[in-house]
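Below is a filled-in request sheet from our internal design queue. Each sheet records the structural input a requester submitted and the sequence that came back. We keep these sheets so that new team members can see what a complete request looks like end to end.

REQUESTER: design group, bay 2
PRIORITY: normal
MODE: inverse folding
CHAIN LENGTH: 498
BACKBONE (tokenized):
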């Protein structure tokens, strides 16, 4: 589809650091030929499930203060109104964007009022705003809510990789940007209503919410998620294996599904939700210009730690989904991936993490890195997990080396450690003692390190995770230096034999 004159709301949210995406890991590049059909269908079902849960959470949130001072405000949505309860419709001015040609011709009912007293707020209820035929915003369900207590936007659209995703944000700056996007559409097609909408926006201008509002919304959304339905059997039977992938490992036993999946669902909900709330408010605070440098530094640490834990639990849960899938290759969609761009963003983060453990990370790259076939977001998180696994087994002062090279039609990435012995006498005599931390197995997927409290994937799950990403992981044990990880990634076909 050609680029539209204005960006969609999901495009704006996809490039925002303060949008919360509850749909898990992002998908693939928009090349349909490289997508797994069942994976896209599953993501669409999941995003829709979260969208309907968010609508229920929103209506619950808007009703919470009825006993004291009932909330009032403005709700803009597409393609249909999201509020249906009469008590809410009486207190909110609701506007719907539509591409219905009849709405363009007739200018469906608008009531322009001279005053904006609180008692008049609802009299613009269910007004319709027309958009140009073909404007993608009419087919992208969204809801923008403005009140004096908080502002919220929810979008059922696509992520940065054009995969189906549900996103929401309480950030006033993001909402102001989205409002300007919608205002341009109103100016183009509904100029007679611009003055009233501008007045309503000024009356209920975006504000940063109390942390309890964000927490309540997130928890209520999770409670209202509809039951998940599997993708249609037809899609599952018609999915295609990527030519670089081999046969999937055998399906895990039913006991793994019932124990590990339920356990990790509970962990993900109870840990990721408050972490997401903390990260949202941390990023809002970081936008302030009156913070002293030491406060900014601490907030950046909080933001980084929250992101790392959110990604870790997201990776663990996705690994369990892969382990318990009847056909594991259908759970991840693959696409041409720029490894050079991914590494440019990841290497500084990896080096910072290594420095915090008093380790040195060295990365050796060829002059040119051709694209590979994988899932960029999942690949980044899986590589980060490998580096963390290696770092946990090294004493202070040791070195981690990552070397990337071409190997025929594949790209080879090798990760190995160089131990710095903590006892000079042992080092002088050539005696190296590999530090192996105590690890306890949790089910058939997870490992637990009691001395640090870290959860990680076991080796079998890690290999299967990379297998689902189109790669092959080989692990070799060295008696004195620990594990050597060698990863082979398929090159994008156009670059395979250059």
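RETURNED SEQUENCE:
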């Amino acid at each position: 589809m050609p680029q539209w004159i204005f960006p969609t709301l999901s495009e704006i949210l996809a490039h925002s650091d303060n949008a919360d995406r509850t749909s898990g890991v992002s998908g693939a590049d928009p090349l349909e030929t490289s997508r797994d059909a069942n994976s896209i269908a599953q993501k669409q079902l999941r995003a829709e499930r979260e969208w309907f849960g968010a609508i229920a959470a929103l209506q619950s949130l808007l009703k919470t203060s009825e006993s004291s001072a009932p909330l009032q405000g403005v709700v803009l949505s597409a393609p249909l109104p999201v509020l249906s309860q009469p008590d809410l419709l009486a207190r909110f001015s609701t506007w719907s964007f539509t591409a219905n040609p009849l709405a363009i011709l007739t200018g469906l009912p608008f009531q322009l009022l001279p005053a904006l007293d609180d008692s008049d707020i609802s009299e613009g209820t269910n007004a319709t705003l027309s958009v140009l035929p073909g404007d993608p915003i009419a087919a992208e369900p969204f809801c923008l809510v403005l009140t004096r207590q908080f502002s919220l936007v929810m979008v059922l659209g696509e992520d940065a990789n054009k995969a189906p995703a549900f996103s929401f944000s309480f950030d006033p700056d993001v909402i102001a940007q989205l409002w300007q996007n919608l205002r341009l559409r109103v100016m183009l097609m509904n100029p007679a209503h611009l003055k009233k909408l501008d007045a309503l926006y000024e009356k209920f201008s975006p504000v940063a919410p109390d942390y309890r509002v964000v927490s309540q919304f997130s928890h209520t959304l999770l409670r209202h998620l509809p039951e998940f339905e599997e993708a249609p059997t037809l899609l599952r039977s018609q999915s295609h294996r990527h030519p670089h992938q081999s046969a999937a490992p055998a399906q895990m036993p039913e006991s793994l599904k019932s124990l590990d999946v339920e356990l990790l669902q509970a962990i993900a909900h109870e840990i990721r939700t408050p972490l997401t709330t903390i990260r949202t408010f941390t990023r809002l605070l970081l936008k302030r210009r009156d913070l002293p440098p030491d406060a900014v530094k601490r907030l950046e640490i909080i933001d980084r730690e929250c992101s790392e834990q959110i990604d870790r639990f997201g990776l663990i849960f996705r690994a369990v989904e892969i382990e318990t899938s009847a056909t594991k290759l259908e759970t991840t969609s693959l696409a041409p991936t720029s490894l050079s761009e991914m590494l440019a963003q990841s290497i500084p983060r990896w080096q910072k993490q290594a420095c915090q453990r008093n380790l040195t990370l060295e990365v050796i790259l060829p002059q040119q890195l051709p694209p590979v076939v994988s899932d960029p977001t999942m690949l980044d998180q899986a590589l980060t997990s490998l580096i963390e696994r290696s770092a946990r087994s090294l004493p202070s002062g040791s070195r981690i080396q990552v070397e990337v090279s071409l190997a025929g039609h594949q790209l080879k990435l090798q990760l190995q450690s160089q131990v710095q012995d903590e006892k000079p006498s042992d080092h002088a005599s050539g005696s190296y003692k590999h530090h192996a931390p105590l690890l306890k197995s949790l089910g058939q997927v997870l490992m637990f390190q009691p001395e640090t409290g870290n959860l990680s994937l076991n080796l079998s799950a890690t290999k299967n995770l990379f297998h689902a990403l189109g790669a092959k992981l080989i692990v070799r044990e060295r008696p004195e230096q620990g594990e050597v990880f060698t990863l082979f990634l398929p090159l994008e076909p156009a670059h395979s034999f250059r």
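SHEET NOTES:
- The first helix runs from residue 9 to 14.
- The CA atoms of residues 57 and 221 lie 5 Å apart.
FILED BY: M.R.
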